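Structure tokens please, single chain.
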Amino acid sequence: MIGADVPVTKTITLSAQYTQNVNGNVQTGAVSGQTSAVGALAKYSLSKRTSLYAIGAWSQNGGSGAQLTSTSKFTGATQPIQFGGTGNYQDQQAYMLGINHTF
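Here you go.
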């Protein structure tokens, strides 16, 4: 994971982050999948304690190791979690707008 904050002006800050996760078997060294994620943030300070922000995040899932599973506490069965589509484990995107006020 690597990230950076860049103050553009006194009131505007831009941030970015990159994360990579490689899934595999520790004992055999086999790689079963890879997930990469990128995030970006823009922050505008309205005052010393209040700011507006916009965030975008993108995640790319690949290989069988990107398949998340969930184990039922009731039956003990393990099922894959699907994020959408027709059975593929989809890439994901998220966007947020907000206001932050510190008391």
